[in-house]
Amino acid sequence: MSSNLRTYIARRLILLVPTLIGMTVLVFAITQLFDPIERAALYITEPRQARFVKEIIAKYGLDRPVYIQYFNWITQVIQGNLGWSQSLHMKVLDALVTRFPATAELAIYSTPLIILFGIYLGKLSAIKRNTVIDHASRVVAIIGWSLPSFWLGIVLLAIFYGGMGVFPPGRLSEWAEALVRSGEFKLYTGLYTIDALINLNFSVFLDAIYHLVLPVITLTTINVALIMRVMRSSMLEQLNKMYITAARARGLDEKTVIDRHATRNALIPVITLSGLLAAGMLSGVVITETVFEFKGVGYFAAHAATQLDIPAVLGFALFAGILFILANLIVDILYAYIDPRIRLG
Fold it and tell me: What pLDDT score does 336 carry?
């Protein structure tokens, strides 16, 4: 790693602190829309404390100036206290930790497919510009991007589960769920496919994959279109630049020109989009998780919102905000690695 790159990463890490503070200020500002009694729920860690609302208001200064309230609130957040979720009857942090593996499993299997297919199809479409392949891929992209995720999910369920009796909703079949909850199966990560491999239980692994098929197809079909279109546009822009003409004039073969020169630079906007896509996946795909009864973070957030579960909604907002900030940090570092001009600037 060069010194310039190390300096660039150090600067980005320093800038991460005010960004995180700004995000927490925005989330805290939302709490000011509620009265002190409702805000007191953010400091409850168990049901019996709900009887001592006045004491909580006094202890955490919920009737005092805003800056004192923010300091008390952020102190609790740093300690891991995000409040009590009335909808799930558990701590908000525990709810997020419990539900995150389901969302992570969807993201792990969907995001690489979306990015790889999107880059490949976009690159192919640009290289074969104005051919049948280009026109066909563009039509597929428009159709895929236009499909509502809830509609596609319901259609897939109706065809495969309702009509053919395969690929059911949920994360596991009843027998696999019972086995996982028994003492015979140890949960290490909460990701059933990973834990099944660790336990050397291939029947649970296959069952988990079986349940992932439809939600992964839904997410891939809809999101691959956007990556593909951005890649195609960026690739066409690079192919028309002078350095590509110069590379060809030097006698480099077409594969080298495309793979080593055009593709590398064309990936820069795709990296941004991919980072945001990954963060969005990890912070929960509400509609897909709801349609397929895949009870992850997105499902939890949607349920909390319908129940007016304020601590849970704010906890989810903090969780999602942190994910997007970290995703932007990773994207910035990848930018600098791919294009040295960025870190030199």
Answer: 74
171: left (phi over 0), alpha (psi -120 to 50) or beta: alpha
* Residues of the chain where predicted confidence (pLDDT) is lower than 50: none
Ordered structural domains, the chain, with CATH: 3-85 (no CATH), 100-151+213-344 (1.10.3720.10)
Burial of 90: CB neighbours in 10 Å, binned 0-12, 13-18, 19+ = middle
According to the 3-state scheme, what is the secondary structure of 312-330?
Answer: HHHHHHHHHHHHHHHHHHH
CB 324, CB 55: distance < 8 Å: no
Q: Can you tell me whether residue 128 is helix, strand or coil?
A: coil
Q: Tell me the backbone φ, ψ of residue 214, rounded to 5 degrees.
A: -70, -45
Cβ pair 343, 336 in contact under 8 A = yes
One DSSP character per residue, 59-119 reads: HTTTTS-HHHHHHHHHHHHHTT---EETTTTEEHHHHHHHHHHHHHHHHHHHHHHHHHHHH
pLDDT tens, position by position, 328-340:
888 888 777 776 6
What single letter denotes the amino acid at residue 44? I
Instruction: Evaluate whether 261 touches 152 at the Cβ level (below 8 Å).
Output: no
pLDDT for position 42: 76
